[in-house]
Amino acid sequence: MTVSTPSATRASTAPGRPVAVDPARWPDVARPPRASTVRTTVARYVVERALARLPLRIQRGGDHTASEDGAPTLTLRDPAAFHQRIGADGLIGFGESYMAGEWDSDDLVGVLTVFATHVNDLVPAWLRRFRGVWAHRRPARDRNTLDGARDNIHRHYDLSNDLFALFLDPSLTYSSAVFDTLPATSHALTSAQHRKIDRLLDLAGVGSGTRLLEIGTGWGELAVRAALRGADVLTVTLSQEQHDLALRRIADAGVEGRVKVELRDYRQVGGRYDAVVSVEMIEAVGAEFWPDYFRALRRLITHGGSVAVQAITMPHERMLATARTHTWISKYVFPGGLIPSPDAISRESAAAGLSITHDTGFGDHYAETLRIWRERFVQRSAEVDALRFDPVFRRMWELYLAYSEAGFRSHYLDVRQFRLVPTDPEREASR
């Protein structure tokens, strides 16, 4: 991904440091969208009412300064544009306003954690009934059909291997680690990622001679560790960038004879395997295709085998509320994605003939993983610039990492490891 910078416009003229925005690259960030006076007025009323009740310090205009009571500060550099964007596009507008530099914070994670903790109190109950009026529907192009899934994965994971390498640890593992102790330190991240991988391989019973399928290659670290145990691994991905680098890393580890990497959708994989592992991939599947995902897991696992899945989860009510909504995350970060609830995973796996025999959550570990990633990303901003990602992208990515960290710190989000086994030997015998 390259970012052009000519003919940039100023997204904010308020006091502070406005962000230069390329309108060709960021058309919806370059200027606030049109919103009716009524919508803007309602947005201002709801936002100001919510902000007044939250443990935040609100500063309007100028550079943000730390509060004396330690509460995180939200600085509104352009309140009019901020309210106009929220009136037009809700939470998408909230995110785009940050990308444009119209609001900022001395503690971005702190502000977002307050919002996540009080998510049910932000909008009055009477106004929630009108959610369908202002919330955008997910665009049809983001559906995870065979072609759509490939495009959605490309839009995130094919940004640049060099970009991901700037903030991930040397194992290039892009999922929650499991630390030995909390709070975590940056130097412990690689060992914590290996601990997470080893727990999943143990859950799936991976050892010498195991025929293992991995759905979602990443950059190959799990496949390498499985091969070092003596497993024969097929790992599939839709990301060309990940596929190519994973092949090189597998060769460098000396296990290319035990690992095969294919550019293939999970729905197109054939054969039967003693173990299947899938790490934080279900979030990209989309609710419409969760039945296909779990039926594939069931079809691909031998009776007596085990499936190990690591998944981010959210409460069921919140999942239902956002299932059809086009969010800032789905627009800019993970198109087509939806975080499942534990209830949804239980229901869909049971319908496919799989039973959950292990379920462990460790959301606090993801908060620490994300903190380390975010701090590394911010510290290496000059190197991000050198890769030709512009300031709007940097603000977008920092907001994404902080937003995710806040979700886990507030326990709005969790991450869980599941072990699933076939429950229907009769179905097995009929194949």
Attribute tags:
431 residues, alpha/beta, Rossmann fold, seven-stranded mixed sheet, three-stranded mixed sheet, 19 helices, globular, disordered N terminus
Could you explain the architecture of this structure?
The strands form 3 sheets. Strands 8-7-6-9-10-12-11 form a 7-stranded mixed β-sheet, with helices on both faces. Strands 3-4-5 form a 3-stranded mixed β-sheet. It starts with 8 loop residues before the first strand and ends with a helix. The model is unreliable at 1-16 (pLDDT under 50). It folds into 2 domains: 9-135, no CATH class; 142-429, 3-Layer(aba) Sandwich (Rossmann fold), CATH 3.40.50.150. It contains 19 helices and 12 strands. With 431 residues, it is α/β, with parallel strands linked by helices. The protein has helices at residues 27-30, 37-53, 79-99, 108-117, 125-128, 131-134, 146-157, 161-167, 189-203, 221-228, 240-252, 290-300, 316-322, 328-332, 342-351, 363-379, 381-386, 391-409, 425-429; strands at 9-10, 20-21, 57-60, 73-76, 103-105, 211-215, 232-237, 259-263, 273-279, 301-313, 354-361, 414-422.
Question: Reading side by side through the largest sheet, how are the strands ordered?
Answer: 8-7-6-9-10-12-11
Superfamily (CATH H level) name of the largest domain: Vaccinia Virus protein VP39
Low-confidence stretches: 1-16
Rounded to the nearest angstrom, the radius of gyration is 22 Å
Largest sheet: 7 strands, mixed
Helix content: 40-55%
Total number of domains: 2
As for the CATH topology of the largest domain, it is Rossmann fold
The assigned CATH architecture of the largest domain is 3-Layer(aba) Sandwich
- Report the total helices: 19
Strand runs, count? 12
Amino-to-carboxy terminus distance: 45 Å
Average pLDDT over all residues: 91
